[in-house]
Amino acid sequence: MEAIERAVPMPAPPERLWRAMSTPAAVGDWLGGLGPDGVPHGSDGTHGTWILTTPSVEYVRLRIREVGPGRSITLDWSEFGVEAPSRIRVAVETGPAGSLLRIREEFPHARSVPRVAREVFWDDCVERLRFYLVAEEGGQTPPGIRSISLGVRVPVGTWLPLHRRNLFRWLPVSGPGYPPTAFYVVDDAGPWRFPIRRVEDYFDERLSLFVDVGDGVTRAVVRTHHDGTGVVLSIHHSRWPIVSGAESRMTRLRDVFEITWRASLEQAVRAAGSEGGRHGR
Questions:
Q1: pLDDT tens-digit map of 213-270
Q2: Fold of the domain built from segment(s) 2-136
């Protein structure tokens, strides 16, 4: 089995983080909506089933396998109720700034859900849990949907990924020429085309794409910079709109964009390392 692991500091003492992880009402507030058949624990606290809907996944069946020892839960996670289940263990430990949340998911190779989609999902979950803990203490929950922030090291420092001749080699964009007029993401339903309303560039160092996602225009800023040891190509995609009743749809769309951006950065690395990348600017 492949595995995904996270160890994340959280702004709460262990007992309060554990309540957020193990109490049905709290779980529904940050992870997703518990369905009418959701039974969080059996009479001995070591088994049971949750049926829930998350902002990223429409239907999930969870089977609690074990609670404890310590502050930990082990469960089986099956999306759509029919997927080969993942084995997930979450544990709460004492951390230097409050708590440390440990997540480990093992999933079989037969799963149709790609690993990168699960990584994005857990990043979203951790962010929502952090917002929930802050709001529970009377703080303000940051508005909007989590931005996409990614970066990768370009192996060939003389290759310029944001040069107009190289841009179309790795970015999923199209148009009759420069500037591009459409951005593409791909999911199980096939490619989606999103209009690019405006493009702003600064030499070969920064590119801003204003992408229309239907309910508003988002902003993706792509940069290159030297960090002392080489060239880093980074992306920050923000300003995700929230329309009443459509937050789940926009969260899922944002996740598809993140998966696309990750694949694009990997393509940039391949392009830089190719023979054409070594000789071209």
A1: 988 999 999 999 887 777 899 999 998 987 766 678 888 899 999 999 999 999 999 9
A2: Alpha-D-Glucose-1,6-Bisphosphate; Chain A, domain 4 (3.30.530)
Residue 161 to residue 67: CA distance in whole angstroms: 49
**Is the bond into 241 cis (omega within 30 degrees of 0)?**
no
Name the 3-class secondary structure at 107. Answer: strand
Q: Report the alpha-carbon distance of residue 215 to residue 184 in Å, rounded.
A: 17
The two structure tokens encoding residue 26: 């709290």
- Give pLDDT tens digits for 83-107: 788 899 999 999 877 899 999 999 8
Interatomic CA distance for residues 162 and 133, integer angstroms: 40
pLDDT exceeds cutoff 60 at 116 = yes
Best mean pLDDT range from 19-28, 102-111, 193-202:
193-202
Instruction: Render the burial of 231-247: b for 16+ CB within 10 Å, e for the rest.
Output: bebebbbeebeeeeeee
Q: Which amino acid is at 143?
A: P
Within 8 A by CB and 6+ apart from 64, the residues are 40, 41, 42, 46, 47, 48, 49, 50, 73, 74, 75
Decide which of 3.40.1190.20, 3.30.530.20, 3.30.230.10, 3.20.20.60 is the CATH code for 148-279. 3.30.530.20
Enclosing H/E stretch for 91: strand 86-95
